[in-house]
Amino acid sequence: MTQIQALTEACIDSMMLIEQSCHTHPMTHKNMLSCFGGRYFSKGLYIADTLVGFYMAEMAGPDFTLMDICIAPQYQGKGYAKLLIANLIEEANNRSAESIFLEVRVSNLSAISLYEKCGFNEMGIRKDYYPADNGREDGKLMGLVLFSFS
Predict the structure, then answer these.
(1) Would 126 disulfide with which of 37, 40, 139, 144, CB 3.0-4.6 Å?
(2) Active-site residue numbers?
(3) Cβ within 8 Å of residue 48, ≥6 positions away
(4) How far, CA to CA in Å, does 124 sit from each of 23, 27, 118, 141?
(5) pTM > 0.85
(6) SS3 for 87?
(7) How far out from the chain centre does Cα 87 lie?
(8) Could you tell me which residues are beta bridge partners of residue 2?
(9) pLDDT one-digit tens code per residue, 82-140
(10) Which strands sit side by side in the sheet containing 121-132, from one edge to the other?
(11) Phi/psi of residue 43, nearest 5 degrees
(12) 7 to each of 37, 63, 90, how far by Cα in Å?
């Protein structure tokens, strides 16, 4: 049985294990810890009692930013990231957000495809945004408009 629930600082060790298994340049423990409280929130996807994925987001004014999303490698390709994105969109709608933004490595074609399937569109390129083994890599800025004044 899968369930999505709020995460706290007490979950950080499990989150860091997933983070380090998913990213070539993972968030540091200190950076991840700074994304709790205030305008930040995190949700985790559990199967039984096991954390298999999570996202971290920020609400700044009327907009949400997806800061990080990870699914443990052995659970990837099963639709769990899509469940987390759907939860983020629901959370944004519940809080009357206007838009959700994110950045993704231009080389991460599977993530870009997922975001596009969830309604996100490319909004621009951030040159040299991410560290890479051979220097820097561009980030694709994507956004999903939830609310419009028109």
Answers:
(1) 139
(2) 103, 115
(3) 1
(4) 22, 23, 18, 5
(5) yes
(6) helix
(7) 11
(8) 47
(9) 999 999 999 999 999 999 999 998 999 999 999 999 999 999 998 988 878 888 988 99
(10) 2-6, 40-47, 50-60, 63-71, 99-105, 135-145, 121-132
(11) -130, 145
(12) 11, 21, 17
